[in-house]
Amino acid sequence: MDAPSITTTLPPAQVQKAWKAAQDYESMTLSQFLTPMFDTIDTSGGPFGGGQGEQAWKPMMIENIAKGLEKAGGLGLADPVFRQMIHMQEVKNGQGDKT
């Protein structure tokens, strides 16, 4: 997904990098929300029988679920985080208002 439309004097590559970071932040946040949920599931009776192997792969599964949720709209965190990042970069570069 492309970055939301925003008026800025920052280079397009920097804007895309900020958008990617905001999306990654939302994915990480969703992953943190999902982890305790998956910790409550008893997998010993499941088709894979639980165990260390299943425990080793669970964080990667949760991370991919979180990335999928983010791409589907997530919680809506990426947009405000992105806008704040752009604002902070503009202030740092002396281009935006300092409020």
Count of helical segments?
3
For this structure, the quaternary state is single chain
Q: What sequence of helices (H) and strands (E) makes up the elements?
A: HHH
The level of helicity is 55-70%
How large, in whole angstroms, is the Cα Rg?
A: 18 Å
Mean pLDDT level:
87
Secondary structure class reads: mainly alpha
Low-confidence stretches: none
Number of domains: 1
The number of distinct β-strands equals 0
Distance between the termini: 29 Å
Question: The biggest beta sheet, please?
Answer: none
Keywords summarizing the entry:
0% strand; rod-shaped; 99 residues; 65% helix; mainly alpha
Fold and architecture overview:
This protein is mostly helical. It has one domain (13-38, 49-92). It has helices at residues 12-39, 51-71, 78-92.
Summarize this, please?
The protein has 99 residues and is mainly alpha-helical. It has helices at residues 12-39, 51-71, 78-92. Helix 1 (12-39) packs across helix 2.
Provide the fold topology.
Layout: H1 12-39, H2 51-71, H3 78-92
Helix pairs in contact: 1-2, 1-3
